[in-house]
Amino acid sequence: MKTAVPGGTSVLTRLKYLALAGLFMAASGHAQQPAKLVVGLPAGGSFDTVARIVAEKLPNHLERPVVVENRPGAQTRIAIQAVKGAAPDGSSLLVAPGVAIFLYPHLFRQLNYDPFADLKPVTQLVSWDIVLAVAADSPVTSFNEFQTWARQNPDKAFYGTSGTGSLQHFLGVSLARRLGTPLEHIAFKGGKDAVTALLGGHINAIVMDAGEVVPLAQAGKLRVLATFSAQREPALPQTPTMRELGLGELETSGWAGLYAPAGTPEPAIRKLNSAVNDILALPDVAKRLSELGMRPAGGTPQAVDALARQQLEQWRDTVAQSGFVVD
């Protein structure tokens, strides 16, 4: 049945009908506007892949398209600025590495965002192990031997990481201080470059995400001496944790979280949290994340916020004492 405006109605009434129709069309169009998962790193990397795994499943829960928008640069700060300034309606979300929340406030003199005031946590997305490794042909076969070797060879005690100011960088700083052992940091442009330098004999150790190392360790090219995470790396069950080695204060995992702009209403946060937790519980999602060297995390907004605040305090003194600050 068609509904028409009666021919005898006034001009004012006709305008009201047209206005209501326009509002209905605008609302319908808005409902179909895609939500964005903003990633501060280039397409093709691990964070981008995590975002795309989630974005693929989210439309089933949100009843709207979801796209991934890569805004690389300035160590994810460009992406954070974009989401910080977005409308707080759940349409722009940030896939953020944990370091952008708990480490960068200590690292950058001009951060230009407050992660606890400008962003609202939705959930933790993934976590992953970080390990200390040497080449397979290294004379060092255990963590205790590494400690002894480093003390005896201070001119050779270099460790490589994926970059200056990374969590791995400061894990090495903390490890050196805790052991009373000089360890010189060598920063590379990425994990693969650091691994290549290790295999080529240019450095003697790396502190690296497990995903970069485990396949090479399983192939007999690297030897993992310890993991910084709370539990043993499942793919390397014989490798002890730092806590098992008496260094529990170094216990840390890498992680990434999902964040919305501050001011996003609680009902929208709850809906997003429920949807993403459901997605992370899917077996095929866990399998795909495992291939990246990651584990699905999930949990409440309060849990990821508490984790970030705890790690904010954990790294305050280490970064300050290192003297490493970015202008």
Low-confidence segments, given as residue ranges, are 1-9, 11-30
Q: How many distinct beta strands?
A: 11
Strand order of the largest sheet: 2-1-3-10-4-11
* CA gyration radius, whole angstroms: 24 Å
Largest sheet: 6 strands, mixed
Average pLDDT works out at 90
Strand content: 15-25%
Helix content: 40-55%
Shape annotation:
globular
Q: Based on helices, strands and strand pairing, what is the structural class?
A: alpha/beta
Work out the helix count: 13
Q: How far is it from the N-terminal to the C-terminal residue, by CA?
A: 67 Å
Taken in chain order, the helices and strands follow as HEHHEHEHHEEHEHEHEHEEHHEH
Topology readout:
Elements lengths: L10 H21 L3 E5 L6 H12 L1 H4 L3 E5 L6 H8 L7 E6 H5 L1 H4 L11 E10 L1 E6 L7 H10 L5 E4 L5 H13 L4 E4 L3 H9 L5 E5 H9 L3 E6 L26 E8 L4 H15 L2 H8 L4 E2 L4 H22 L5
Parallel strand pairs: 1-2, 1-3, 6-7, 6-8
Antiparallel strand pairs: 3-10, 4-10, 4-11, 5-8, 5-9
Structure description:
The chain is built from 13 helices and eleven strands. By secondary structure, it is α/β, with parallel strands linked by helices. Helix 8 (167-179) links the parallel strand 6 (158-161) and strand 7. The radius of gyration is 24 Å and the shape is globular. The relative contact order is 0.17. Residues 1-9 and 11-30 have low confidence and may be disordered. InterPro entries: BUG, Bug_dom1. This is Tripartite tricarboxylate transporter substrate-binding protein. Belongs to the UPF0065 (bug) family. Keywords: Signal.
Quick description:
The protein is 43% helix and 19% strand. It has 327 residues and is an alpha/beta fold.
